[in-house]
Amino acid sequence: MGPEGSYSEKAAKLWVQKNMLDGAEIHYFADIEDAFLAVVQGKSDFSVIPIENSIEGSVGVTLDLLLENGAEIIGEIVVKIEHCLLSKGEPEKIRVILSHPQGLAQCRHFLKTNFPEAELRSTGSTSHAARLAGEFEEMAAIASPEAAECYGLKVLLSNVQDRKENYTRFIVLRASETNRVQQVSFIAENKSDNVKSYSSSEQESGHEFYPESKIEPDNSSLSACKTSIIVYLEKDRPGALYEILGAFAKSRINLTRIESRPSKKELGDYYFYIDFEGRASDPLIKNALKEIKNKIHTLKILGSYPAFKKP
Amino acid sequence: MGPEGSYSEKAAKLWVQKNMLDGAEIHYFADIEDAFLAVVQGKSDFSVIPIENSIEGSVGVTLDLLLENGAEIIGEIVVKIEHCLLSKGEPEKIRVILSHPQGLAQCRHFLKTNFPEAELRSTGSTSHAARLAGEFEEMAAIASPEAAECYGLKVLLSNVQDRKENYTRFIVLRASETNRVQQVSFIAENKSDNVKSYSSSEQESGHEFYPESKIEPDNSSLSACKTSIIVYLEKDRPGALYEILGAFAKSRINLTRIESRPSKKELGDYYFYIDFEGRASDPLIKNALKEIKNKIHTLKILGSYPAFKKP
């Protein structure tokens, strides 16, 4: 997500660095959907997308896109968020405040207390907000200090989010196998050597193989790896979620997150997004997933990937 | 939530009608937080607040406020949402589109496809967006057809949300017992006869008694009533959620919803919001809650109330 100076860019650079993908080129997209679809449509090899914030919670559009599209999660990155109030003008003149909806929500108290009369504008990214705020003195953006530098804005106030500790988790996506096969000709023309070729030795499952690159998951222990799935329960089977959690508990698989998202079919009908420790190819987890499959309507494995460790 | 013409107003009127509170006066507040706090601070006897939408999911700020404040859920109302694009001007001139963040999110595809260049502004309510849109021809609001009437706007397009079926669930709140006791003098001066006095026969638990009014929960069957709770698990006890669901499953208590919300302390730490059928005073449920209490760090009972039935 761009333009330059976004938290997504920070996450992308961190990921590039962690995986030593020195030749990687960063492309910028207008919003979460465009950045997500770039990988599905073969416009990028990998996409870095925010999924969860420690103050405001899940990024709904990311969860919806994960369900609707063929993309595989191959990594995660956690970035510390330090929202600043940026402007060309003076605080007392600010009439309009711009940011991504998550940025506005993370600073809700701050905005309500300090700028109760200000107009709040939603933008596709925090950095886009900063770019726009550079146009008029009466505008301010909620964005990173880096965005201030990029667009020649003053940092009027630092750390304006409602809680000092603020982290966003980003996921790294690539197109799922079916999509990748269709994109081979495109990928072959691509400059980035590291991500050109894919191992096909494990093609049995679409979600259990990795490119022949440096982006290998850490195999050293179960807890070093995470798997994300989406499950959709049979309607009117209220005990089903309990049975699913039971399949994990029985095998002592640690869940790290469970999140519901409306099915959009009717009120009270949900998909569950579940993250747990371990790889989908581990025999223990394979068995648990097999057991779960029999109890539910839909199981979508989003991917297995190394859990984020602080650098 | 106001001003006039909001979906919250529709929900409030429906609730007043259902409970035959003919003398009730409707007060309007600028946003969800103000409407919520009105009941906590004794500015209103009841508050009607959106909690969940069938397209965009939970209303985060409502969940946070339920955790932080002493308010009791005593009812729920479901309202069909039919977002329209409202303006004084013509579609081709629209440069700015205003709505509540939930309204913008529910129409994300529509906006991106039809108005990719438009500026999106967040307002405290959809009706506030409509009121503002009346000021300039180049502005439009995403709001109800009723809001168009209120503010003299044309309905340029109807049903612009991303899915035709769109429902929002509202909760009806009153101050919790502790707060109510402090407000007795205030309430005594209030005009609404129906809600003046409270039964104190069940004061053993702060969440299990109801005013001596027509707002009695339907006691005819367990499924006619719902209870909402918040639980906070001991950190690093991954099996705890499973055990909690087990306590419900064992007693055949039907869960209707489970939602996580960040604790805001650190990434990966959550509160769970659980709705289930039945009243907290039912012996079966009392037992289940007692069992749960021993397994977790915090249990907050938000209230037991009649489940919404279509009129």
UniProtKB/TrEMBL annotation, chains A, B:
Keyword Lyase tagged: yes
Prephenate dehydratase domain segment(s): 1-175
InterPro entries, per database record: ACT-like_dom_sf (IPR045865), ACT_dom (IPR002912), Chor_mutase/pphenate_deHydtase (IPR008242), Preph_deHydtase (IPR001086), Preph_deHydtase_CS (IPR018528)
GO biological process, one term: L-phenylalanine biosynthetic process
EC number: 4.2.1.51
Descriptive protein name: prephenate dehydratase
Keywords: Amino-acid biosynthesis, Aromatic amino acid biosynthesis, Lyase, Phenylalanine biosynthesis
GO cellular component, one term: cytoplasm
UniProt organism field: Methanosarcina flavescens
MF annotations from Gene Ontology: prephenate dehydratase activity
Gene3D superfamilies: 3.30.70.260, Periplasmic binding protein-like II (3.40.190.10)
Database matches in Pfam families: ACT (PF01842), PDT (PF00800)
Pathway: Amino-acid biosynthesis; L-phenylalanine biosynthesis; phenylpyruvate from prephenate: step 1/1
This protein's record includes keyword Iron: no
PANTHER family: PREPHENATE DEHYDRATASE P PROTEIN, PREPHENATE DEHYDRATASE-RELATED
Domain ACT: 229-306
Reactions this protein catalyses: prephenate + H(+) = 3-phenylpyruvate + CO2 + H2O
